[in-house]
Amino acid sequence: MTYDPDNVFARILRGEIPSDRIYEDDEFIAFRDIAPAAPVHVVLIPRGEPPASVARLTAADAEWAGRMLVAAGEVARRAGVEESGYRVVFNCGRDAGQLVPHLHAHVLGGGDLGAVAGAG
Q: Active site residue: 41, 102, 104, 106, which one?
């Protein structure tokens, strides 16, 4: 998967498509998903032109990728699911359901999300 500068998330970042933002800082924005898979479903994206997916991350990306996880925790707090529990999901590639070639995370919560493989 290669990065497409006209993907929907890049267009949201440029203000071409409106979004219901619940978090933003100098590096990331988070907005409510338009087709939620859980009662709370927020998409967290890096600003700029990040790798297309997790598979394209390198050691040089470690610091900002770590900050993205910290931002995901703040998103969960603002969305009201920090205490009840939430899931942070990075889909990587088409077989995993990644549709947009712009690295992003889903913050899901607001109810029982069920178990996942290897849960424990």
A: 104
